[in-house]
Amino acid sequence: MQIHLARGLIESSSVSNHIGSVAIVKSVIF
Questions:
Q1: Helix locations, 1-30, DSSP H
Q2: Which one of 9, 19, 25, 28 is at 20 to 30 Å from 1 when CA atoms are compared?
Q3: Cα 21 from Cα 30, distance rounded (Å)
Q4: What is the number of domains present in the chain?
Q5: How far apart are CA 1 and CA 23, in angstroms?
Q6: Torsion angle, alpha carbons of 25, 9, 7, 17, to 10
Q7: 3-state secondary structure of 16
Q8: How far is 3 from 15, CA to CA, in rounded Å?
Q9: What is the distance between the alpha carbons of residues 18 and 10, in angstroms, rounded to a whole number?
Q10: What is the pLDDT of residues 1-30, one digit of tens each?
Q11: pLDDT at residue number 30
Q12: Residue 16 and residue 24: Cα distance in Å, rounded?
C-alpha cells in the first residue's frame, strides 16, 4: 500500500511539473 501511495505521489508531482513546464513554454512563445 505504501509503495503504491508513494508511486501515486510521484506521478502526480511529475504531472504538475509537466503542466508547469508547458505553461512556461507557452508564456515564452506567446
A1: 2-29
A2: 19
A3: 14
A4: 1
A5: 33
A6: 10
A7: helix
A8: 18
A9: 12
A10: 677 778 878 888 888 888 888 888 888 876
A11: 66
A12: 12
Task: With 0.70 as the threshold, say if the pTM is over it.
Answer: no
Residue with cell 508531482: 13
For 27, the domain range is: 1-30
CA–CA gap between residue 19 and residue 11 (Å, rounded): 12
Residue recorded with cell 504538475:
16
- C-alpha cell, 30: 506567446
The CA dihedral of 11, 17, 21, 23, to the nearest 10 degrees, is 100
For residue 22 the three cell numbers come to 508547458
